[in-house]
Specification:
mainly alpha, disordered C terminus, globular, 4 strands
Length: 392
């Protein structure tokens, strides 16, 4: 008998198997994130400031902000692209995660604030608060704050989803009430008596875990944390959508009533993925705040949640890595045009969404796939195209 018959089959772990099964676009995204996590800090910290290759500190923070937006777009694509839930409330989950991080950073200021109070943040001293509100307790501890980054948006999404999905609210009606939720939270956080800084929000942060937030090393560390979080977020989402659970989500997206008829508890599937995506948005918000240095109620604005949907549509709904790509490209364009042509940027954003809807319904990734079928990119995209169309 041939010795080949006795050779054991190669075995791979779950993570290795997932990485091997990813579409080409996902592999490229992970490779670029790894490269950026290595090169950006190196070019910022080790290369002299007068060198052409030096990456300045403001650019590190800007790129880190883009990665946070990419993670936020990824969370929206998970529920919209694979489950058909068009959420216009993910800006609220992003902001709640940001406020949880902001509360921790405010507690770290201590007596270094303008008024020198060792316990009360400056805005509370200014408003004549006599003691710290009960819901601020524990935010001087980093583990507690990080738990709240996940629990605050996650619990809100769970309660909201439990009521909405059990009532079988779907389509445009669900989108409207998610937007109403976001708007209600914005109005609430604008109030000074809520205890979150009112209109000015939370700012003047000093350090994170003892590291100065203004130092280049800390900014580089936050950039790396953002890149790692985006990569982990993508892998988690990819593992979900490529599993049997993910196949059920796609069936719910395409024919919810049939899935119910087959005996699946649709509301449970929706509730799980909606809560998970909200927690991912909260992590994005927590990473965003120390890099921009402020969090205020404007982050709850309904227009922000609509803009997230545009990012996903531009990149490619239902692809995951396309959503991240769309977030980075649109925000880069926003950074450029708000400086060069600030008067017409909003019109350009609206025109972009209309153009994508009419001429690029599958976004940039859809165009790349079409190019792969027709010409030069075929060698690159031909291998991964079938898997991607099945939902990667």
């Amino acid at each position: 008998m041939s010795s080949v018959a006795h050779t054991p089959a190669l075995r791979t772990g779950p993570l290795t198997g997932l990485l091997m099964s990813l579409p080409l676009g996902g592999k490229i995204m992970l490779a670029l994130l790894t490269l950026a996590a290595l090169l950006v800090p190196l070019l910022n910290l080790a290369v002299p400031a007068d060198s052409f290759f030096h990456v300045p500190a403001y650019m590190v923070a800007l790129l880190g902000k883009y990665l946070c937006y990419a993670l936020l777009a990824l969370s929206v694509d998970l529920v919209w692209g694979f489950c058909g839930i068009l959420s216009l409330g993910h800006g609220a989950f992003f902001a709640l995660g940001g406020y949880a991080m902001g509360m921790y950073l405010m507690r770290q200021i201590g007596p270094r604030g303008v008024y020198g109070d060792p316990v009360l943040p400056d805005f509370m001293v200014f408003l004549n608060w006599q003691e710290l509100p009960w819901f601020w307790y524990g935010f001087d501890l980093f583990p507690f704050a990080m738990a709240m980054v996940l629990l605050a948006p996650g619990l809100l999404a769970f309660l909201f989803g439990w009521l909405a999905f059990r009532s079988r609210v779907t389509g445009v009606y669900l989108s409207i009430i998610t937007q109403a939720m976001t708007y209600a939270l914005m109005l609430a956080f604008f109030r000074n008596d809520m205890g979150f800084g009112g209109n000015n929000g939370l700012t003047d942060f000093k350090d994170l875990l003892g590291f100065d937030l203004q130092s280049d090393a800390t900014r580089s560390g936050l950039f790396v944390a953002s890149a790692v979080s985006l990569a982990l977020g993508y892998l988690i989402c990819a593992a979900i959508v490529r599993s049997k659970f993910g196949r059920v989500l796609e069936a719910i997206r395409d024919a919810e009533s049939r899935v119910r008829f087959l005996g699946y508890r649709v509301e449970y599937y929706k509730l799980f993925v909606f809560t998970l995506s909200a927690m991912m948005a909260g992590v994005a918000g927590a990473l965003y705040v120390p890099q921009v240095g402020i969090i205020n109620p404007a982050e709850f604005a309904p227009a922000n949640s609509i803009e997230i949907v545009i990012w996903v549509a531009v990149g490619g709904r239902g692809t995951l890595y396309g959503a991240a790509l769309g977030a980075i490209l649109v925000n880069y364009a926003k950074t450029y045009f708000t400086g060069a042509l600030p008067e017409i940027w909003l019109f350009m954003l609206g025109a972009l969404f209309v153009a994508v809807t009419l001429f690029m319904p599958k976004g940039i990734v859809g165009l790349l796939r079409q190019a792969g079928r027709n010409g030069l990119l075929g060698a690159l995209y031909g291998r991964g195209r079938t898997q991607e169309e099945q939902g990667a």
